[in-house]
Write a structure and sequence with these properties.
The protein is of the alpha/beta class. It is built from 10 helices and 12 strands. Helices cover 19% and strands 16% of the residues. The protein is globular, with a radius of gyration of 20 Å. The chain binds zinc ion. Zinc ion binds next to loops.
Length: 385
């Protein structure tokens, strides 16, 4: 590649659902997902729900392997140009038609240490054959057909082991890690450290999903997470919500390249994984109730100023958490080290979902943007480093 030419940059949304998950749009098909990915400028999107037998069958029928990238694309006979979409938008991104990555989410509910744990985890497979063999093992632990996001009594550590044993290129990311009721660090459901949850397999965790209610700045307050990449995704239950949060990568689009970029602890920017693309956590749902006064005192003020913007999408709250609270784990050493800022060692792209801020969206403007409450400017670059 010509050294003078910048690396191509693309956005990937790695947490999506199909119509087989509860509370999702009944219209969600691979064609609809691809069409909305085009509208939102996503080069890569998760398939969602590959553990569901009917959805997996549909994936096999409508997608075809893209040999160049190791990902999947819509079969030619399955058009992604859908007449019911609100705007005539190009169904293609700069990198060609959107590519699918096999992705599923599993809700594990189990007892550990005398407490009931409820943790959601994301699972990724390199191809349909690996997905099939993973599901054959997984179905011994519960009914995969009941929900696109199956509820299983499987310990998160054992689920991770199953993923690692399925294929060397399969990977695992704990989902929306601060959701109070259903996540790794959830105050009502989770654990106080990665090690407590994953034990001997903790080193296999290389990325964490911040979720919609937290952003990288918040997560980087806790230095014990520094060994992990922070990703963020839409967790979309409809085409409209696709890409509301996503991840920025640089370089050629490929399954292996993406995996290596996520695993590389040294890379902070192009040419690898660049940063999550987050919108601002909403103050009302994300109450800072941490145990460390030093940390609380250092909270950035801007999220409060911009809180209204995040409420906008589709004229209703885009948040999955109506009564959430941000509770730190009972981590005794949690405090802001001297000289460390919320931005230490990371960069990310905060945004608001309006046309001015979204790179390529011809979708209807959310209400906040229409009424002029658009985020006035990105976070100052000087604060981010
Ligand atoms: Zn979830």
């Amino acid at each position: 590649m010509n050294a003078d030419r910048p690396m191509p940059i693309f956005r990937a949304d790695l947490h999506v659902h199909s119509r087989y998950s509860r509370a999702t749009s009944p219209r969600l098909s691979t064609a609809l997902l691809a069409a909305w990915a085009g509208i939102k400028g996503l080069a890569v999107l998760g398939t969602g729900d590959f553990t569901h037998p009917q959805w997996r069958k549909e994936l096999a029928q409508t997608l075809v392997r893209d040999e160049a990238s190791g990902l999947y694309r819509l079969r030619e006979e399955v058009s992604s140009v859908l007449p019911e979409l609100p705007a005539p938008s190009p169904p293609e991104t700069e990198t060609g038609s959107p590519l699918f990555l096999l992705q599923g989410e599993i809700s594990s509910i189990y007892k550990r240490g005398g407490k009931t744990r409820r943790v959601h985890n994301l699972v990724f497979m390199p191809h349909l054959e690996a997905a099939e063999s993973f599901c054959r093992r997984l179905e011994a632990t519960g009914n995969l057909a009941a929900d696109g996001r199956p509820i299983l009594g499987l310990d998160s550590r054992d689920l991770l082991e199953m993923v690692l044993e399925t294929h060397p290129a399969a990977f695992f990311i704990p989902a929306h890690i601060w959701t109070p009721w259903f996540s790794l660090f959830g105050s009502k459901s989770g654990f106080d450290s990665l090690e407590e949850c994953f034990g001997d397999l903790t080193p296999a965790i290389f990325a964490l999903e911040t979720g919609l209610s937290s952003d990288p700045a918040m997560n980087r307050l806790w230095s014990r997470l520094d060994s992990c990449r922070l990703v963020s995704n839409s967790d979309a239950h409809s085409g409209e919500n696709l890409g509301r949060e996503a991840n920025v990568f640089a370089g050629a689009v490929s399954y292996q390249g993406k995996l290596e970029a996520l695993k590389d602890p040294a890379a902070q920017g192009p040419p690898a994984f660049s940063a999550p693309w987050n919108f601002t956590p909403r103050k009302g749902n994300t109450t800072w109730t941490g145990t460390a006064p030093a940390t609380s005192a250092s909270l950035p003020r801007k999220p409060a100023l911009l809180a209204g913007v995040a409420l906008s999408a589709a004229n209703r709250s885009p948040w999955g958490y109506s009564t959430g609270s941000w509770n730190w784990p009972t981590e005794p050493s949690l405090s802001m080290p001297p000289g460390r800022t919320p931005w230490a060692g990371m960069a990310f792209f905060p945004w608001c979902p309006c046309r001015n801020c979204s790179p390529k969206s011809s979708a209807p403007l959310p209400r906040a943007a229409r009424s002029g409450q658009c985020m006035p400017e990105p976070w100052p670059a000087s604060d981010r480093n």
